[in-house]
Each structure stands twice: as C-alpha cells, then as structure tokens.
Amino acid sequence: QVQLVESGGGLVQAGGSLRLSCVASGRTFGASAKAWFRQATGKEREFVAAINWSGSDTLYSDSVKGRFAISRDNAKNTVYLQMNSLKPEDTAVYYCASRTSPYYSEYDYNYWGQGTQVTVSS
Predict the structure, then answer these.
(1) Residues of the chain with pLDDT under 50
(2) Ramachandran angles phi, psi of 90, nearest 5°
(3) What is the dihedral of CA 56, 61, 64, 67, to 10 degrees?
(4) Predicted pLDDT of residue 30
C-alpha cells in the first residue's frame, strides 16, 4: 500500500511561483513512476507531469511545458513540482499519483493523494 501526502499549495499572483511536495510511504517509492495531475472546478482531472523511477526522464503536458518542472528525491521519498510563471488558468487542486511501473505514463496510476489547492490571482 502507498500513501501520498501533498503540500505546498496556496494563493499566488499571476507570474509567481510555488513548489508542491508529495511525500510517499511504502518501500517501493524508488521503484515507481510518479506524476502530478490537476482538476479545476467543473473540469475533468488532467495530466500535468510525470517522472520515471530514477528521475532521469520526464514528461509534461503542453500547457505547462517550459514553466513547470517535476523532480524527485528517492532518499526522502518525495516528489516535487516546481511551478513558475503561474497563470490564472493553472488554478486547480493538484494531485500526486504513483504507479507500480517504474516508467512514466499519462495513465494508469494506482495511488493518489488527497490534493492541494493552488489558486492564481490575476
């Protein structure tokens, strides 16, 4: 069983930055791919970014490419999402997710955190 706990959300002005963190429990943290998703009010959850087991390879949605960066520290069982140049349309609840495979994907995540709210004001 894997438990994921996100933190770091908050209110920020457009153009600002935030860093989200996700701490995971479970012995297989370093062997599994991780991802961030988000869900805005009234919209479906969407993929944001993913990272493979070692941190050597990443994937981003077109909407955040060049502004967001996903990383991980396996020694700390933590995955991060650095968000720069934030826009009002980035406002959403951000979720951390884990899958049993070591390779990233936009789909098929088995474990989810409770989410952290990010609000970007214009």
Answers:
(1) none
(2) -85, -5
(3) 20
(4) 74
